[in-house]
Write a structure and sequence with these properties.
With 378 residues, the protein is an alpha+beta fold. It is built from twelve helices and seven strands. Helix content is 63%, strand content 11%. Helix 4 runs parallel beside helix 6, helix 7 packs across helix 10 and helix 9 runs parallel beside helix 10. The relative contact order is 0.06.
Length: 378
């Protein structure tokens, strides 16, 4: 049978602080020793009720009962400071610390005003009615009591903000992990999709050549082996290092894929384009790979045009084919969605034109160098 949870005197999150504060109840307990009879007994009963309110305030934080018990505490301070001894005003440090727990400004102002009245009435009573002029010495301490809720509230507010910041950072870390998993999945999809398409085409070619041209068939089989080994290396790189791919490196693989698919390729790439980061170029190379893979798989095209150019504001990567077009392809799916997501990470866009073939226009904005040199880079 599971053990019943042991009820704690004060919540663990506050540590030893609540117990240390109990030391300040020694002075009022000693002051009551000077009283006699029923007045003394009633004084100790009020002090016991004050101790109960102190306990309850730690357990009722954030509830309506919190304000109730705080009112009880301030009522005891005011009554005992008038009926017994003005030194009971020092109990105001207890109430002041709890008023600082109010996060709501309205509740804080009401609580602070109630504390001000709680301290003011006994002071006025002893100075005017009882003519205790020497009570003036206690006023500086009362000022400290009235100022302490502001400091405590500020500390609690900062602690709450730090807690919210930690929670936000935890959520961000989780989102980063999810994004990283998605990115790796997409990169694996693009890499393997490209390579498997190539292997499929070469396998079909070998099937046709095996009875007609055995020597060329052997050569193609050897290329299939080489390509599969390269695919394994690519997968290892993606998983372990996520190696950035340059457009020049990607173009070599794209040419090989289109050539195997018997698709004529026409390229117009500007070699002098400079990229702001390797990530930008890597993302564009993956977009190019996905676009060309879709052409091979779905377009039934005989020609493909690739163009990379730039202007003052952005660079443009254009992939065009003379195939059947998107209306009959129906490939608006994972591949194109992956292109859109990658371009979105770079602040870019994807435009789709389907008329006598398909044209994909991928744009990425340029970023100005922080050194203020006036040159634009991607």
């Amino acid at each position: 049978m599971a053990k019943q949870a042991r009820r704690e005197l004060f919540p663990k999150k506050y540590g030893f602080f609540p117990y240390v504060f109990l030391i300040y109840l020694i002075m009022p307990a000693v002051l009551l020793l000077e009283e006699e009879g029923a007045k003394q007994v009633f004084g100790y009963l009020l002090l016991l009720l004050f101790l109960i309110s102190y306990h309850q305030l730690f357990h009722k934080e954030g509830t309506r009962m919190f304000s109730y018990w705080l009112g009880v505490q301030m009522g005891i301070i005011c009554f005992q400071s008038i009926a017994y001894d003005y030194n009971f005003l020092f109990l105001g440090f207890f109430a002041a610390s709890f008023i600082g727990w109010y996060g709501n400004k309205r509740n804080f102002r009401i609580g602070w005003s109630a504390l001000f009245i709680t301290l003011l009435l006994p002071i006025m009573y002893h100075m005017i009615i009882m003519e205790h002029v020497y009570i003036i010495y206690i006023i500086p301490f009362m000022i400290v009591i009235l100022a302490s809720p502001f400091g405590i509230r500020s500390v609690n507010k900062n602690m709450q903000l730090e807690k919210e910041l930690d929670e936000a950072n935890a959520k961000i870390e989780e989102l980063i992990k999810r994004e990283e998993r998605t990115r790796i999945a997409q990169d694996l999809h693009d890499t393997l999709g490209h390579t498997l398409s190539l292997l499929t085409l070469k396998s079909q070619l070998v099937e046709r050549l095996i009875t007609k041209d055995a020597e060329r068939a052997k050569k193609e089989v050897k290329e299939i082996e080489t390509t599969s080994r390269a695919a394994l290396d690519q997968v290892r790189e993606l998983v372990t290092d996520m190696k950035a791919q340059t457009l020049k490196e990607e173009l070599i693989q794209v040419e090989q894929l289109l050539d195997t698919a018997n698709i004529d390729i026409h390229m117009q790439f500007h070699d002098n384009i400079r990229f702001h980061s390797a990530v930008t170029e890597h993302m564009l190379s993956l977009c190019l790979k996905e676009a060309v893979t879709n052409i091979v798989k779905h377009s039934q095209a005989s020609k493909c045009w690739l163009e990379l150019k730039e202007n003052d504001r952005m660079i443009l990567l254009c992939v065009k084919d003379n195939g059947v077009g998107m209306s009959t392809q129906g490939v608006e799916g994972y591949g194109l969605q992956g292109i859109k997501e990658r371009l979105a990470l770079l602040g870019g866009t994807l435009s789709l034109i389907t008329n006598s073939g398909t044209t994909l226009e991928m744009t990425v904005p340029k970023v100005k160098r922080p050194e203020g040199e006036g040159k634009l880079y991607v």
